[in-house]
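Practice problem 4.
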């Protein structure tokens, strides 16, 4: 399990993470999203042991990852811009990582070079951005880490390779109980893949919950009335947002679907429908409730 307690990290005196408390259970895919500069990459680097906390703790199965080779050998962090040794090819990089990851599997490596259209002897510097990303993913999955952390994992990948990656991650969890953390702005990809999601903003975690639970708490409501009830008629409902178009009300309401439906039925609507929000809509609504400017939330 990954656990952070009052985790703080500053750069030039400004907090990138500000007292962050978070738990990520093993054997899950955790989606980490947030506004630009919210601290996503910083959190991943702290978990990977690349950075030392300025305050608080980050523990991986009860141990600090910083300056701890035994813990680091169980964690693979793939940053937004992957690192490769100058003028190396994929075979040379595999030999390099084999020195640091005791579970590195050449059987897995050879299989993945048939799944991804990559030539192992081709110089990585001559590859396109998307091919370099695929090369990095081959190395990451071949290392067979207990914890795989991906920063913008789907960036530069075509739709076919994105599907392949989703299947490989699911297999890694099912077969080896691997834990995957994906930091991304692509909420649509995360919605199809993740068990849980956490929202970071200004170094703080606004929430960390299962996707089903998040969707079960918020509802897009469309209701038509004639005449339109006065505002006080909706007392008792936790309405986060309301838009009116003639006799049609469009609302975002927090609560149980059955209770919301029963309450609105007492107002005798001409039409009533509850729709599930997308992950992107959930994050926008939650940030608005928290008082944040959401115009740049998705970067």
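Answer key:
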């Amino acid at each position: 399990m990954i656990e952070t307690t009052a985790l703080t990290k500053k750069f030039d005196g400004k907090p990138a993470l500000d007292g962050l408390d978070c738990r990520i259970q093993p054997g899950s895919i955790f989606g980490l999203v947030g506004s630009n500069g919210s601290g996503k990459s910083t959190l991943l680097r702290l978990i990977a042991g690349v950075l030392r906390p300025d305050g608080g703790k980050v523990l991986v199965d009860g141990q600090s990852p910083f300056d701890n080779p035994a813990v680091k050998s169980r964690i693979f962090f793939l940053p937004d811009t992957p690192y490769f040794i100058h003028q190396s090819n994929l075979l040379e990089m595999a030999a390099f990582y084999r020195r640091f990851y005791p579970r590195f599997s050449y059987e897995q490596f050879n299989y993945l070079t048939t799944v991804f259209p990559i030539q192992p002897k081709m110089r990585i510097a001559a590859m396109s951005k998307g091919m370099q990303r695929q090369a990095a993913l081959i190395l990451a999955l071949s290392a067979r880490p207990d914890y795989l952390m991906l920063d913008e994992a789907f960036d530069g990948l075509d739709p076919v390779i994105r599907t392949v990656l989703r299947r490989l991650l699911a297999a890694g969890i099912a077969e080896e109980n691997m834990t995957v953390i994906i930091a991304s702005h692509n909420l649509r990809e995360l919605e199809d893949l993740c068990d849980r999601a956490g929202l970071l903003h200004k170094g703080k975690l606004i929430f960390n919950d299962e996707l089903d639970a998040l969707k079960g708490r918020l509802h897009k409501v469309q209701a038509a009335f004639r005449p339109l009830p006065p505002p006080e008629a909706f007392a008792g409902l936790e309405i986060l947002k309301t838009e009116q178009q003639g006799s049609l009300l469009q609302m975002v309401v927090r609560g149980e679907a059955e209770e919301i439906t029963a309450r609105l039925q007492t107002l005798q609507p001409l039409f009533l429908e509850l729709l599930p929000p997308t992950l992107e809509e959930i994050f926008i609504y939650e940030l608005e409730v928290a008082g944040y400017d959401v115009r740049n939330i998705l970067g």
